[in-house]
Every structure is written in structure tokens, then in C-alpha cells.
């Protein structure tokens, strides 16, 4: 036990903002459930050392504004009521806020608007499954917390026999999310390689939200979706057999990070909170709650 920690159950008020509308909800994470319905005891530590690193201006307002997308299950999405923000990133950012003595304020933003919003200092941080890339690091700062990669999602039975192999995508219609690494970098590069090899290019189809890409897939307008590996498996398993993850290794494994405005003085406090929440098991318990595989743990966070 660390003497600098005070134990407390997470029971914080959440504000979800979407445009000018806001929804208040209280959460009691003392007994959340997994996808299978099993109760998971989740507590957080109010870490005095981490809280001491919070900048005075953030302490004064008492809140932590977190921008996330709302169509990226299990990371962040709306519950069946259409207004309750849930998911791993929501729970984990709540735990971070609680450990810093702050109240989380969740902001629903389209994925491609979050990093520009951080650059304009509209939010304290962004948490939406961001892959850490050199291009993004030129605009924002990151605190790593998971590792992920990309996968290919296809309709049930994989009728076109596609795989997460760049050569297999030539001549096909592949959807993605606007602002994603898949849409900005991977798919255009794969298409260019196809053409260089004398094959048909990839028809890249980008949508503001992944839900729209999935509608394009099931409606026959797209042949596949290239998306983050962790969410792809979660959604496919809960699609009622509409789609599945195509064969192939995870494409370009990469660190996933919490994003901050460049030079943010808050990042060191969040980094310390993430380390504390990994050490006390909160991170792994939330991963289990949301069916995130242990392979997503960073080596420094693995307690086994």
C-alpha cells in the first residue's frame, strides 16, 4: 500500500455535452457489469502525488473536460437510451478524474474534430482510441495507455474472401472513419501501392462516424471496413451475425494515447494517474469489464 493514496469508490457526476445540449448522469461504478453480466468491483485511488501535479487553473475550475467520439464501442458510445455515454474510455477517464480530485465533463465530438479542438484548447484532453503517430505528435501531446492496431471487418461469411492483407484490398471498396489513421494514411498508401503494382486502386470511403461505415457495409455499398482492432472484434461479436473480422494479423500495431493540447501542463498529472490506476488494478478491471484483451496492456502496465 502506498501512503500517498486514499481509497474511494468512484461516484462522480458526469456531464455529457453535445453541441449546446447537455445531459447529467451519476454513475456508481462500485458494481458495473461486463458484457456477460458479471459484476466487477471497480474502485479508484485519490492519488495525492498525482493530484499535486494538476495545474492551478484546472484545480480552480474543478473539472476535467474530455472529448470523445460516440460511435466507437466498446471504447466510447451511447447506451441504448441514446444519451448515456458509456465505454472503456469513459470509465477510465472517470477514474483518472476521480484520482486527480476533479469532476469529469464528457464532450461528444466527431472523431476528426477532436485533435483540432485540442489544438485550439477547447478541451483538457481527448480520449477516443487515438493511435500515436508522428503526424499527430506534431499537433498534440500524448500519454500512452493501451496498444492496438488495425483490422478488417467484412460481411458474414466473408463472401469476397478478403483478409487484412494490403494486397487483398486492391480493387475493393473499403470504408473507414474520417480523421482516422486508416483513412488518412493506411488506405491511401495501400491504394497507391496497388496502382504501382499495376492493379486497381482501393476505393476509399470515409464516414464521420463508424456507425455510418457499418451501415455502408451491411447495405452493400462497401466491401469492407478498416478500423481499430479492439473495437472491431467487440462490435462483430455483438452484430447478430451481420459482419465478422476478416483473417489476418493485426495491421501495424501501435500505441494508443490520451491526447492533450501541445505543451499541456495537465499531461504529467494524467500520466501519474494512469500509472497509479494501472498499478492498483483498476485499468485491468475496466479492460475486463469491456472485453478488451489483455494483449492491449502496455508492458509497463502488466501486473502478471
TrEMBL record:
All residue ranges annotated as the Solute-binding protein family 3/N-terminal domain in the record: 63-294
Entries under SMART domains matching the protein: PBPb (SM00062)
Alphabetized UniProt keyword annotations: Signal
SUPFAM superfamilies: Periplasmic binding protein-like II
Protein name: ABC transporter substrate-binding protein
Organism of derivation: Spongiactinospora rosea
